[in-house]
Amino acid sequence: MPSSIDLTIQPLIGSASQDLASMPGLITTSPPRKHARGRNRDRLILYLSWPEGSSLPPEKIGPLLDYLVRTFYRSPGPVTTAQRAVAEAINQLLLDRNLKQAMNGQQAIGWLTQVVVRDKHLYVGQSGPTHTYILSSSDTGDGEDSRQIFDSHLAGRGLGISRTSPVRFTQAELKPGDAVLLTSQPPASWTAETLQKALNQGGDRLIRRLLDQSDTNMHAVLVQVEAGSGRMETHKPMTSLPTPSFSQQTSAHQNLDEDELLEDQAAFSAAYRGPGVSETWIGGEPPLDDSLGQVMAEHSRSADHSSEPTSSSAIPQTSGRAEVQSNQVGRNAAPLPEEPGKVGKVLTSTKLRPIKQFFKSIGRGLKIALIKLLHGFARLLRVVLPDSSLFKLPPSTMAFFAVAVPLVVVVVASLVYLQRGQGIYYDYYFQQALESAQIAEAQSDPQHLRMAWSTTITYLDQADHHRKTPESQSLRAQALQVLDSLDYVERLDFIPALTTKLNDSAHISRMVVTDTDLYLLNAHEGNVIRATISNEGYVVDPFFKCAPGPYGSFFVDAITDITPLPRGHDTRATVLGIDANGNLLYCIPGEDPLAQPLAPPDTNWGSPEGVVFETGDLYVLDPKTNAVWIYWNMDISKQPRFFFGQQVPPMHDVIDLAVNRSDLYLLHTDGHLTTCTYSGLAESPTRCEEPAIYIDPRPGRQDTAIIEGAHFTEVHFAPPPDPSIYMLEPTSQAVYHFSVRLTYQRQFRSSEPLPAGPATAFTVSHTNRTVFLAVGNEVFYASLP
Predict the structure, then answer these.
(1) What confidence tens digit (pLDDT) does each residue in 333-365 have?
(2) Would you call 422 helix, strand, or coil by DSSP?
(3) Is-above-0.90 flag for pTM?
(4) Minimal CA–CA distance to 668: which of 4, 258, 166, 96?
(5) Selection from 688, 775, 783 nearest residue 728 by Cα
(6) Of 79, 180, 272, 334, which shows the fewest CB atoms inside 10 Å?
(7) Parallel, antiparallel, or unpaired for β 232-234 and 5-13?
(8) Nearest to residue 330, comparing CAs of 60, 563, 125?
(9) In whole angstroms, what is the distance from residue 721 CA to residue 110 CA?
(10) Alpha-helix residue ranges (DSSP H) falling in 178-224
């Protein structure tokens, strides 16, 4: 569906002495003709700023923005997924660069604001303490419909500081006459109310107000919304003093071609793998220095032969189409080499020249040896045979040799690589790990120490892919010991929990445990599996029934969540499941399950996704309707009570809940929590803290709404005698332990490697002091200290 609004982007700069054709750190682009699924209607604005003294060299910013544009348009899925990919990509690049520059203190911290407009819908992603003003044309002037978006807890301190890439997401609907203002350091006089009053007097009046109230350090971007057909125009920056008018222009990226988007994909895929995955830019300086020039050189060469070239910044034009401004950074850099059998491993050509020479020498040697062998064989035949004319090979034999000889060459070369090439790559990565360890040993700052040892682990992962040695394992143990000490990690001896293996198709998404039983929710089929404790472990009960299907007059769909029921429940059920339609399934060992529908609330059900039984009451999470409902005394025949009062937190992205008597914990997709305390008193209504703040006493950490390096997917409350909150971090296969007031205590990880992949479920038995961890279709458990 074509867009019905036009966007006019007006950069604003406080100092009139800066006569710039475009604002550094700003790039605007419309979708290319070919792109990833879901990106065809997305207009993108990236605004990158820096704290004072923490910027990149100016010549590096353009190539970086160009890379981020490529990252966005080749990321399929929802807008927020592509925005998160952009934030994670720049965070990885800056982090690797900062680690290399840690010794001389040259750090770069990025503050990124991403604006995506799809039709009339606005998506804003903020990373770092940036400010976004959404000004509504329908506001009467009191600022009630307009808002200023600034949340340092959710958006974080910036990018390039840690492995975590915090993004604060905001959505809104746009209409003609609205405006969006982006800035990192607004003057105190810029409030939603004052700016709204200026907007009501016209867009020009708003621009004059912004410039008149600015200082010389002000940098801002104003996006004005007008009725139209989906165009986007970017003007020359305006300063605090009037400047000659300049013709409007469309983004130089508006017609970016797919070949240009994908040419660097192999190299960039190795540069970025996301948090928790052991891939990074390897060798030499990080890509924001010389190695980024190498990558951009490839893009420049492709742009020279493209009918629709790109530019890394917005250049004013006298015509409607942008001229060619190919990036010249790194034009003479050598092409990126490739590791045999693995496309896209980014290694600097200078450090890999001995490796390439090694394989060239192998090829030359094999060629010479083969020629000598064939010549010697021919001479032998001439001596042995009385008449060479008698020796005439049939065509089938000649064809066999034509095929066999190249195969022999390939086999021999492969054997040589396996014997010697693997060792060369191991030596290279292990040497990088040693260098990173030396940097780490020289650090005193806990944050730099953590980053350096984490990078050591990354290089060791690469080295172990080729060969494992006692030296690499010893260095890994040293690195893990330091990291564990910094992060309060306790290693547990996890062992398989089940005596028999589950089907390969099983995918455990939830677990609950009782004194004698373990219940597993299989998301693949929407059923519950029961296992009973024995001397050898937990034995799967093949006769236990707890699955979707017809029950009486209605149908229970796939079960979305489960909660344990107390012993002696009226139905004799031990576990309770819920489907997305609000139907309950009481599962009883040795009997058929019982199904009952919940009495729906007045607003009806959206899609119930979570259920908790706590002290006799049933709590149901329905994020689609932004609600948590309570069935007092488990009376599901009566309409439920709405948990909240006048303060209702946003719950569209809530994925799990936990309840501790009157306290409610809501877990969001980005890993932050909302905490609420219920009250039925009108004079003291239910109150919430959004976002809740984690108290983090670890060295080099700070109290924040999002734990660095953690993207939690489940939350669990453990009752007294040690009341606690436990949360699952899937990427690191870790269980985090907090107090009920969210003070970080420690985290539990396996002392030995578990199956590859993210952890998919966990639970904690407070009676047996046991933690359970699922990875796909495998379940493990360990005793808690």
Answers:
(1) 333 333 333 333 333 344 445 555 555 655 666
(2) helix
(3) no
(4) 166
(5) 775
(6) 334
(7) parallel
(8) 60
(9) 45
(10) 192-200, 203-212
